[in-house]
Design a protein that fits this description.
The strands form 2 sheets. A 7-stranded mixed beta sheet has the order 3-2-1-4-7-5-8, with helices on both faces. By secondary structure, the protein is α/β, with parallel strands linked by helices. Helix 5 packs parallel to helix 8 (225-244) and helix 7 (189-202) runs parallel beside helix 8. The protein contains 8 helices and 9 strands. The longest helix is centred in the last third of the chain and has 20 residues, at 225-244. Strand 1, helix 1 and strand 2 (37-42) form a beta-alpha-beta unit.
Amino acid sequence: MNSSDSIVIIPTYNEKENIEKIIRAVLALGAGSHQFNILVIDDGSPDGTAQIVHHLIDTEFANRLFIIERTGKLGLGTAYIAGFRWALEHGYDYIFEMDADFSHNPDDLPRLYATCHDEGYDLAIGSRYVSGVNVVNWPIGRVLMSYFASKYVRFITGFKVHDTTAGFKCYKRRVLETIELDKIRFKGYGFQIEMKFTAYKIGFRIKEVPVIFINRREGTSKMSGGIFGEAFFGVMQLRWDGWFRKYPPMPAAQG
């Protein structure tokens, strides 16, 4: 039996500076009440990230911390999809996406959980832009690129989410059971847009929860022009899909 109904999926590549600290911060939440488990998806980090996770599993967190190791950098989207499938197989009801570098504040996890568990939303998005621009320590060029990318997605697709590339989210189980994960095409930041847009087209209830995004203090950013280009040009395909693709039906309401 799971020790929690919630699993936080954290993809990693060369995160030895951050991984133990983020794991301890997440697992320390909710002592005595609601807690979160963690699944790390490591893409063959040569810096020993996976070894740090295994040590924590073996010495302290055997029932709350888990890891999938993959051979090489296979893409953010495929990492999350592997994590989604694992989470569904292991019976979790609330599945989170989160970065390892503290750009997403672990203290916001209970707010995302409450949005789905207590308020009844199907997808909660930790949004940088729903209440202004809440980004700290990013170069202004990157802030503008990210902000206007979301504006571009809204303009092209008609999808009324302010932070379409956000990677801090909580899904209810039924969302990931309904979305045809093998049909998700994008691997980088386009994956984040495609997952949200697909949930929206199916008819799931989505809410943006304002968060403050803080640029990583340690380690190296994985952002690249190719990743961002995929998101930018893939939006046209999503608009086309919105017109012509047959999406899965909305599941029956849960009793």
